[in-house]
Design brief:
Helices cover 35% and strands 15% of the residues. By secondary structure, the chain is α/β, with parallel strands linked by helices. It has helices at 31-37, 42-53, 92-103, 125-142, 165-181, 201-209, 228-245, 275-285, 315-329; strands at residues 10-13, 59-62, 66-67, 73-74, 82-83, 106-109, 148-152, 186-189, 214-218, 249-255, 257-259, 270-272, 291-295. A hairpin with a 5-residue loop joins strand 3 (66-67) and strand 4 (73-74). It has a single domain (10-333), classed as TIM Barrel, CATH 3.20.20. An eight-stranded parallel barrel has the order 1-2-6-7-8-9-10-13, surrounded by four helices. A three-stranded mixed sheet has the order 3-4-5, with no helix packed on it. Helix 4 runs parallel beside helix 5 (165-181) and helix 7 (228-245) packs parallel to helix 8 (275-285).
């Protein structure tokens, strides 16, 4: 019997990434919605959460709390960095979490990209202490929210076909304080290099040593690093490895984007893929994963009549095609 294609239950989102009208940094990937979301009003954030909840979304992964050209801009009042100017509300994190509380969504928070975008800097002793301080700030300020579900370790690992040992160290050292500060919180990572995934003793051992609860593997189709056919093979291997390791849940991070200049580059804007391709991606991973997240729903699948509309012009088209299928396949989870 053919496995039923799983619905999308969440994805990554930004409040602010690299808003920079002069385009000095030339990181334009989120350009179609970064220039909109940083100015969202509380009413728009509430609509954003409702739009997702109405079609069965349960999880949101915050890409970053720190951003800007050097990782020194922050979206909340922090003693470690300057707060971003021209935000749509005084405390957008409070607004976002409150809206998620109302609409039953669960958010993974992050402390990454503070002061540096270089992976090696996560082991700098001063920065490590400050990153722990950021975890403490986030829990102190926002830990009362029911929607504060856990943590996202945003530094991505390339599995080729194994995790770099430094990445395992980064996860496990950071997890110590994440679990101390929020013992019930779930820890999520999202590696790439999925096309090279293997099922063998070495990889199973690494899964057993990684102190995280959920691994949401990027399917890498949007980044042109994996075919849909290879994605199915890789997730089948990962299912066997996770079952043997018996530790972390296996989720998918399905890429809903293409590139406006056709190339995987920082200065290329992300645009919505076709429903035909997305449907094939979902079908490839569904038999093997526990849940399906996407990068991203925000900006790439958007309810056309919503006050929270943002993103590329084709986002409404892909939203309509996906929700048409969803209403037929899973009518019980659709509210709108």
């Amino acid at each position: 019997m053919e496995q039923k294609m799983k619905p999308i239950v969440g994805g990554w989102f930004i409040i602010y990434w690299l808003y920079n009208p002069t385009r000095e940094c030339q990181d334009l990937r989120y350009d179609y919605w970064d220039t909109v979301t940083h100015a969202y009003t509380p009413e728009q954030w509430d609509a954003f959460m409702k739009d997702l909840s109405d079609i069965g979304q349960k999880y949101l992964v915050l890409v970053n709390t720190f951003g800007g050209l050097d990782g020194k801009d922050c979206i909340y009042d922090s003693k470690f960095a300057n707060k971003v100017v021209k935000l749509g509300s005084e405390d957008p994190l409070e607004v976002v979490l409150s809206a998620a509380d109302r609409h039953g969504l669960k958010i993974f928070m992050t402390n990454d990209y503070y002061n540096s975008y270089e992976f090696a800097d996560v082991f700098d002793e001063t920065l490590k202490k400050e990153r722990i301080g950021i975890l403490e700030e986030l829990v102190e300020k926002y830990g009362h929210h029911e929607s504060f579900y856990g943590w996202y370790l945003a530094r991505e690992a390339y599995i080729n076909p194994y995790y770099p040992e430094d990445f395992i160290r980064y996860v496990n050292e950071t997890a110590v304080d994440m679990r101390r500060l929020k013992p019930e919180g779930k820890i999520l990572i999202a590696p790439y290099g999925t096309a090279s995934a293997v099922y063998d003793e070495t990889y199973v051992d690494q899964l057993r040593r990684l102190d995280c609860d959920i691994i949401a593997y990027q399917d890498c189709v949007g980044c042109k690093a994996c075919t849909i056919e290879q994605s199915a093979i890789s997730f089948a291997n990962l299912r066997k490895a996770h079952d043997e390791a018996g530790r972390s849940a296996l989720w998918a991070d399905v890429e809903t984007f293409e590139w406006d200049n056709g190339e995987n580059r920082l200065d290329s804007r992300l645009i919505s893929t076709s429903w035909e391709r997305l449907k094939a991606q979902l079908a490839a991973c569904s038999p093997f994963v526990d849940e399906v997240l996407v990068f991203a729903f925000q900006g790439l699948l958007t309810k056309p009549d919503s006050i929270a509309y943002c993103g590329y012009k084709e986002a409404a088209r892909l939203y309509g095609e996906y929700t048409t299928w969803l209403r037929e396949a899973y009518p019980e989870i659709v509210k709108d």
